[in-house]
């Protein structure tokens, strides 16, 4: 039996309309939409060596060091996929993964790593079984598998902008896999939008995203949140098609603050924002009003701030960040072209 290898890079993504709350198994309680990033990537390779143990056998290396914590997570996921990939019992998998960004930096590493993992699995499946689906079907299945591994990872398999979840205005939208937004449906100003991530706190979150999703099950405002997210998504897609920057900023910032308001009003409540997060939000609004540059912020489930702005203002915005916020580490990124299959 031959040895096989597959390698992919896959990007993280930053949600504009947030996915928060889910049903079994990894079904979103509301639809979402996200920018696919360019530089914030996971690079993952799998070597599949013949093995006669007839059990799932994995060695997982993160940045060249054996990592048992991630290994357990991956083995647990793979054990649910034996019907789809029966050959997993015939191979020993040696997985190497690394990120281009630091862990706990406000960039969703599970989205990039789990999408890279499933893209590599599907590439191995093609080589081992000889079955090669059409590209559209390949990425559709990759999105579904990635979603099952880590919800928002399903959006990372597509370039630029991707929706996930059932959306009234989109006939083929689905809770099972993400859908790319066609470039012609997005004003060119958003095609290369910038995202500068300001690191307020790189430490471990006090409450995990998984726990946060669970708390939505009994949240007193859950249904109102889901309805508002659907409304905001419809508004945002129209605004991005029309190049309506005012509405884009309103929706993106509302979604960021609403995400954290749900955390603060859950039972039990919790707060992930830091005093510096609030200071940065105020400074961003002030800069926008004074300089008339359409910057805005979004925040994932953590304290770090994603500063979004058109590429034409890159020099001015990054100069401002360097002069006024030198005490913070800043990661500069922009909208990207999606995953890449690496050839040896």
Automatic annotation (TrEMBL):
<dbReference type="InterPro" id="IPR005935">
    <property type="entry name" value="Mev_decarb"/>
</dbReference>
<dbReference type="Pfam" id="PF18376">
    <property type="entry name" value="MDD_C"/>
</dbReference>
<dbReference type="InterPro" id="IPR014721">
    <property type="entry name" value="Ribsml_uS5_D2-typ_fold_subgr"/>
</dbReference>
<keyword id="KW-0443">Lipid metabolism</keyword>
<dbReference type="Pfam" id="PF22700">
    <property type="entry name" value="MVD-like_N"/>
</dbReference>
<protein>
    <recommendedName>
        <fullName>Diphosphomevalonate decarboxylase</fullName>
    </recommendedName>
</protein>
<keyword id="KW-0547">Nucleotide-binding</keyword>
<keyword id="KW-0067">ATP-binding</keyword>
<dbReference type="InterPro" id="IPR036554">
    <property type="entry name" value="GHMP_kinase_C_sf"/>
</dbReference>
<dbReference type="InterPro" id="IPR020568">
    <property type="entry name" value="Ribosomal_Su5_D2-typ_SF"/>
</dbReference>
<keyword id="KW-0456">Lyase</keyword>
<feature type="domain" description="Diphosphomevalonate decarboxylase-like N-terminal">
    <location>
        <begin position="11"/>
        <end position="168"/>
    </location>
</feature>
<keyword id="KW-0444">Lipid biosynthesis</keyword>
<dbReference type="InterPro" id="IPR041431">
    <property type="entry name" value="Mvd1_C"/>
</dbReference>
<dbReference type="InterPro" id="IPR053859">
    <property type="entry name" value="MVD-like_N"/>
</dbReference>
<feature type="domain" description="Mvd1 C-terminal">
    <location>
        <begin position="197"/>
        <end position="329"/>
    </location>
</feature>
């Amino acid at each position: 039996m031959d040895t096989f290898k597959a390698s992919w890079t896959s990007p993280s993504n930053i949600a504009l309309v947030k996915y928060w709350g889910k049903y079994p198994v990894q079904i979103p309680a509301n639809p979402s939409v996200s920018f696919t990033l360019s530089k914030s990537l996971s690079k993952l390779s799998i070597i599949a060596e013949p093995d006669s143990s007839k059990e799932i056998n994995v060695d997982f290396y993160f940045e060249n060091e054996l990592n048992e914590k991630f290994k357990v997570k991956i083995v647990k996921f793979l054990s649910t996929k034996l019907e789809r990939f029966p050959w997993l019992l015939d191979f020993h998998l040696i997985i190497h993964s690394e990120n281009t960004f630091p862990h706990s930096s406000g960039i969703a590493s599970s989205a990039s790593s789990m999408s890279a993992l499933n893209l590599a699995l599907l590439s191995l499946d093609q080589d081992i079984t000889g079955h090669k689906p059409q590209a559209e079907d390949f990425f559709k299945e990759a999105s579904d598998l990635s979603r099952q591994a880590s919800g928002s990872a399903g959006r990372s398999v597509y370039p630029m902008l991707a929706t996930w979840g059932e959306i009234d205005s989109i006939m083929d939208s689905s809770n099972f896999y993400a859908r790319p937004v066609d470039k012609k449906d997005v004003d060119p100003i958003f095609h290369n939008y910038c995202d500068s991530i300001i690191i307020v706190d790189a430490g471990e979150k006090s409450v995990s995203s998984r726990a946060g999703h669970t708390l939505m099950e009994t949240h007193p405002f859950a249904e109102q949140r889901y309805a508002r997210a659907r409304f905001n998504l419809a508004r945002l897609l129209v605004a991005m098609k029309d190049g309506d920057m005012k509405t884009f900023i309103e929706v993106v910032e509302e979604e960021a603050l609403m995400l954290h308001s749900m955390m603060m009003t859950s039972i039990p409540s919790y707060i992930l924002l830091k005093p510096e997060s609030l200071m940065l939000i105020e400074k961003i609004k002030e800069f926008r009003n004074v300089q008339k540059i359409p910057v805005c912020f979004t925040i994932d489930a953590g304290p770090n701030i994603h500063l979004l702005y058109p590429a034409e203002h890159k020099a001015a915005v990054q100069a401002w960040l360097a002069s006024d916020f030198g005490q913070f580490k800043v990661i500069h990124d922009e909208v990207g072209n999606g995953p890449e299959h690496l050839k040896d």
